[in-house]
Amino acid sequence: MRKRMIITLGIVLAIIAGLGFAKYRQIKVAMSTPWTQPPEAVTTVVAKEESWTASQSAIGTCVAVQGVTVSADLPGVVTQITFDSGRWVKGGEVLVRLDTSQEKAQLAAAEAQSDLANLNLERAKELKEKQVISDAEFDRWDAEAKTAVANAESYRATIARKTIKAPFSGILGIRQVNLGQYLAGGDPIVPLQALDPIYVNFSVPQQEVALLKVGSEVNVMIEGTDGVAATGTVTAINSLVDSQTRNVEVQASFKNGDGILRPGMFVQVQIVGKESGGVIALPVSAINYAPYGDSVYIVEDVTGPDSTTYLGVRQQFVKLGTARGDQVSVLSGVKPGEQVVSSGVFKLRPGAAVEVNNSVVPSNDPAPKPRDS
Predict the structure, then answer these.
(1) Quick one: average pLDDT of 261-278?
(2) pLDDT (tens digit, 9 = 90+) per residue, 114-165?
């Protein structure tokens, strides 16, 4: 029995020793063989020069060329409302009439006083011609006549000011008064906006102002709609730069016959620049954005430490221009004909081995639909 146990133990030790020796040989071989990272799968695009229409984007606010809240000039009670909310009105059209019964009575008295003063002036003229009264007395009658006329005109002006009219043609808002309501001076009656044409105000960074000029084409897009809502032109560029934001305010004018743009509306503004050639357009996914500089990876033959050549990447820092759709313009750093990695840049490092697989490539459309997809 003892002999059998010794034989079994010897066999087990022999097996363990054999396995340990085999593992030792594997580790030794592995240590003598240099490790290489497997190539990363990437997609690429060949850089080429093409014409490029530069564009700038900004957020703008619609502003009426003429817009006011029509209000009461003088206090009074509303006796007549001649408009409906949301209606188009012509400049000079009557909107509201206030009670003028007291002013009309005062006007009648003033007109009677004016008539009497004029009669007295005529009599004074006859008496002066006969040298019955002095020049000073005639001047007093003349002044009284003029004062009476002025008093009557004052009451007429007060009555006219209590007839509230549209100062210009435009679209009315929602009515804010009712019949019989007492209005104090300055109380609002109804908003009035001239919608055609309409302004859009937006700001651009100071370094981009040089690309703008009066007459530049501008497109606006509205949140929730696809495509360009309206096309207009730059009509004014502010002469001052905001000291806090370092931005310059720009104003563009748009035809708005259909009323799609409303004052106060936020819109996305796209400033269309001139077409330029010699620009290399790459998909946005090809750019490795970093605080120390933007870069791309160029695929080329790379020589390894053992003097062997393999397909790898070289990191190249670039200077970027404007963007359009899925593309961004590269102003320097990339030459035409170079093969640039278009996806997978986040997992690469300089000199990394790659395997190009362009069976599925990222979008590279300058005008994707839907926009900004």
Answers:
(1) 76
(2) 777 777 777 777 776 767 677 677 677 678 777 877 887 877 888 888 888 8
In CATH, what number does 100-161 get?
Answer: 1.10.287.470
Q: Which residues contact 337 (CB under 8 A, 6 or more apart)?
A: 46, 47, 48
Strands, DSSP E only, in 158-243?
Answer: 163-165, 170-172, 182-183, 188-205, 217-222, 230-237
DSSP code for 353 = B
DSSP 34: P
Domain range summary for the chain, segments of one domain joined by +: 40-52+276-356, 57-65+196-275, 100-161
H-helix or E-strand containing 179? none
Q: Span 40-52+276-356: which CATH code?
A: 2.40.420.20
Does pTM top 0.90 for this prediction? no
- Burial (CB < 10 A; 0-12, 13-18, 19+), residue 193, is buried
Assigned CATH topology for domain 57-65+196-275:
Elongation Factor Tu (Ef-tu); domain 3 (2.40.30)
Residue corresponding to tokens 């080329």: 300
Are the beta carbons of 72 and 287 closer than 8 angstroms? Answer: no
Tens digit of each residue's pLDDT (9 = 90 or more) over 8-42: 777 877 788 778 777 777 777 666 655 566 788 88
Helix, strand, coil fractions of the chain, as percent rounded to 5: 25, 40, 35
3-state secondary structure of 354: strand
Which two structure tokens, joined as six digits, stand for 270? 């796209």
Rounded Cα distance, 230 and 222, in Å: 9
Q: Where are the alpha helices (DSSP H) in 162-215?
A: none
